[in-house]
Amino acid sequence: MIERHLRLIALIALSSILVLAANRVTGRPNQGNGPSAYLPAIRRAWPGRIVFSSERDGNQEIYVMEADSSDQTRLTNNAAIDRTPRWSPDGSRLVFISDRDGNLEIYAMNPDGAGQTNLTQNSGLDRSPQWSPDGTQIVFASERDGNSEIYVMDANGSNQTNLTNHPAVDRTPRWSPDGSRIVFTSDRDGNEEIYLVDTDGSNLTRLTNNAAVDDKAGWSADGEQIVFVSDRDGDLEIYVMNSDGANQTNLTNNPAGDDDTPTWSPHGSLIAFTSDRDGDQEIYLMSGDGSSQVNLTNQLGTDEGISWAADAGQMAFVSDRDGDTDVYVMKADGSGLLRLTHNTAGDDTPDWAYSGTR
């Protein structure tokens, strides 16, 4: 599967090279022999927009840019912390967290920064917002009841509902692709396990059951499988299971280091993840069955914060290889690396909207 995907990416790359060559022969798109001579063709190879957090203006603010690094625009402007922006499925709205009102709340705004609205408006900490697949609701974690619970609300902040209602810590919720279920992590049974609940709070189901930590669950594109991280074998490994908890399988099976933060490709055939098996944290790619594990970044420094483009041909990520954290993009085979941000402050939490969709 991964080989077929990489062959497709290679064909796309070859097409880009031919376009570049044609532009050079005809004199388009510019005069000169430097890198900027072929910038329009390069831009066509990186469509979409990337939203991210940056400290370049003294505190964490939300920025947006084209996926070729052009048109970097500051969307928020206040003395508070604004971070972790996420595109709505149709690309028409952004959700993010901010402490501008004294504690962490969930906000939404338009992609141009207009219409910034506090959706949660309470004295507890609200975090980890994620859009429902149809963009009509947002799931999030909140500590307003004294401990972290899973809540859901309408996209305008109305109808905020506690789904878990338990004295334990419930966190990191993720919608199923069909919008009917939410997977999350909870320590209600003594250690961190993965649970499933319907979006109305019914049918709570424990999916994992062991003495280890199971965390960071994510859905496959078809909703049939859930990928997660577990240290049940002595170190952090990437596992996959059916959506009912059956057939839990160690995909990475690597005792040399920790494998973490798995992220399914939008089409569900590939999983990107981070690993320090080679001495520092790199971004790896593997097939959904754990085969063909490949180091994509292979550089000194910490590489993390993976965000796929919707066509699964590219991904954005964060790296400190140049001394501070910056946002980079690359093709899904590791080629075509492009550094998007260039400043001495930290840039992180990228999220890629591809041609107006995510």
Key descriptive features of the protein:
358 residues, mainly beta, 4-stranded antiparallel beta sheet, 2 helices, 28 strands, globular
Structural write-up:
It is a single chain. The protein is mainly β and 358 residues long. The protein has helices at 2-26, 39-44; strands at 49-54, 61-66, 73-74, 82-87, 94-98, 105-109, 117-118, 126-131, 137-142, 149-154, 161-162, 170-175, 181-186, 193-198, 205-206, 214-219, 225-230, 237-242, 249-250, 259-264, 270-275, 282-287, 294-295, 303-308, 314-319, 326-331, 338-339, 347-353. The strands form seven sheets. The protein has a four-stranded antiparallel β-sheet, with no helix packed on it. A four-stranded antiparallel β-sheet has the order 4-5-6-7, with no helix packed on it. A hairpin with a 6-residue loop joins β14 (193-198) and β15 (205-206). The longest helix has 25 residues, at 2-26. It is globular, with a radius of gyration of 21 Å. Residues 8-44 have low confidence and may be disordered.
